[in-house]
Design goal:
Elements: E1 9-16, H1 23-32, E2 40-46, E3 51-56, H2 60-63, H3 66-71, E4 76-82, E5 97-101, E6 104-114, H4 117-126, H5 137-146, H6 151-159, E7 164-171, E8 176-180, E9 189-193, E10 196-200, H7 204-207, E11 212-216, E12 221-226, E13 229-234, E14 243-244, H8 246-251, E15 257-258, E16 261-262, H9 263-277, E17 284-287, H10 293-303, E18 311-313, H11 326-336, E19 337-339, H12 341-344, E20 348-353, H13 360-371, E21 376-381, H14 403-406, H15 409-416, E22 420-423, H16 426-433, E23 440-441, H17 443-446
Length: 470
């Protein structure tokens, strides 16, 4: 459930033959990726002569009206949904970014986080670069503008200067390009329709548009799409592949496939492994909606316990109002989650959540279940203890609030008020994912960071004194 850990971003790209109108298709692609970021949405569209840009700080349906989509005429586009990991949720930080360069107009959108952003920003500032945003994405645009030669060569040179996580979609007036970082932290998938090709952070955005999923862009690979079709360019040798395991735990939509694995089936296997590792006497299994649902189903199937919908999530609530009193703050969780008393009352409840990061929401849920009449509450996390901050695109770059880094499991159990607290083991997670451990980034659980973190990495590190250039 979107609560203690915040989403990253989603990117989308489309290139259609026969000048098919792509703005409505891009809208639907972004809508399918909305779970990856809800702070801002945007798209850039080319008609072969110019790139048109429209973006705003809101959800996809609120940023784009039917009338606006009609105005964005073109046959190729890129789009972006954002949760801010570097730079605040400001209008100027929304993506894509569009610049005029020696290559003509170029639009770019980015999923991930650069670990050498402070270093790059300093170098670019000293060379006279001026920044209009506080995002690390603008660093990529500035680096690109400094390169000579053709755009493909310039992109390679730019990508080779970047450290960290990046899945990029780039649009010129006549080409669509995708780039994935050499360690493959973030996903990027290629699909095809009869009228063209698509790129997206997840396969669900492709299949929702009736596209066939062709393959994932490989780590250190670039894909170029134009009127001549598709070509691939390996710009960096594969290093230690480090695909983010949290894509399986939480980020990706259950109907997506990642590295050949069904996200839904992985989450069910996680639930079954939880039962195998820590069986419990209980009456019913429920999920923290919605990301805990597949794991709860797997737990129920493995245990023989009934699976029930015990908590309903209000899907129509956005950001709640600023609660002015303690009474209203206490009611906040009930506005977002509604318990079903007949399922919970006088029952021994097993509740499965994808993770426990800060612990605040877990405590509210346990209290809500008890207030509804639960006899016992057994909390299970479908991942190991979250011990270390992420610097590769997840908004936990400050580790001070990570509850498992401050308390042991028994202490956390008391803090959240549960009768039982169980985490999935690291070995169990890797087994359930079905990918070799060496191919996964597990740094948030182990502290083994695949890349060094260089310089300050706070979310607001480029916003000192309110200036993007300071």
């Amino acid at each position: 459930m979107a609560r203690e850990i915040n989403e990253e971003c989603g990117v989308f790209g489309i290139y259609c033959q026969n000048h098919v109108a792509v703005a409505p298709l891009t809208y639907l692609g972004l809508f399918a990726l909305q779970h990856r970021g809800q702070e801002s949405s945007g798209m850039a569209v080319t008609d072969g002569r110019q790139i048109m840009l429209y973006k705003g700080t809101d959800l996809v349906p609120k940023v784009f009206s039917e009338e606006k989509l009609k105005q964005l005429k073109g046959y190729a586009a890129i789009g972006h949904v954002r949760y801010s990991t570097t730079g605040s949720n400001l209008p100027e930080n929304a993506q894509p970014l569009v610049v005029d360069s020696s290559f003509g107009q170029v639009a770019l959108a980015h999923n991930g986080n650069l670990t050498n952003s402070v270093e790059l920003r300093g170098e670019l500032t000293r060379s006279g670069a001026v920044f209009n945003t506080s995002t690390d994405t603008e660093l990529i645009v500035n680096l690109l503008a400094q390169q000579g030669g053709d755009l493909e060569t310039a992109l390679v040179k730019t990508a080779q200067q970047l450290a960290g996580a990046f899945a990029l979609v780039v649009l010129t007036r006549k080409r669509l390009i995708g780039v994935r970082d050499p360690l493959g932290f973030r996903p990027l998938v290629l699909g095809a329709r009869p009228d063209g090709y698509l790129l997206a952070s997840e396969s669900c955005a492709l299949t929702n548009l009736g596209a066939e999923v062709l393959r994932e862009i490989q780590p250190g690979e670039m894909v170029i799409i134009d009127q001549d079709g598709v070509k691939f360019h390996k710009y960096a040798e594969r290093q230690r592949e480090s695909f983010c395991v949290f894509e399986y735990v939480y980020f990706a939509r259950p109907d997506s496939n990642l590295l050949g694995q069904s996200v839904h089936q992985v989450r069910k296997r996680i639930g079954a492994t939880l039962w195998k590792e820590a069986p419990v006497e209980a009456d019913v299994v429920i999920a923290a909606p919605d990301s805990g649902t597949p794991a709860a189903m797997g737990f129920a199937e493995a245990s023989g316990l009934p699976f029930e919908i015990g908590l309903l999530k209000n899907r129509y609530i956005g950001r709640t109002f600023i609660e002015p009193s303690q009474q209203l703050r206490e009611l906040g969780v009930r506005i977002k989650l509604n318990p079903i008393g007949a399922v919970i009352r006088n029952k021994r409840i097993v509740i499965i959540d994808d993770s426990i990061v800060r612990g605040t929401t877990s405590a509210k849920i346990v209290r809500l279940l008890r207030e509804t009449g639960a006899k016992e509450v057994h909390m299970y996390a479908a991942s190991p203890p979250y011990l270390y901050p992420c610097f590769y695109g997840i908004d936990t770059s400050q580790g001070t609030d990570l509850v498992a880094a401050k308390y042991n499991i028994e202490e956390i159990k008391r803090l959240i008020g549960a009768d039982t607290l169980r985490y999935l083991s690291l070995e169990g997670l890797v087994e359930a994912v079905g990918i070799q451990k060496e191919r996964l980034c597990l740094a948030c659980f182990t502290g083994d960071y695949p890349l060094p973190i260089r310089g300050v990495t706070s979310k607001h590190c480029f916003e000192q004194n309110g200036s993007a250039n300071e």
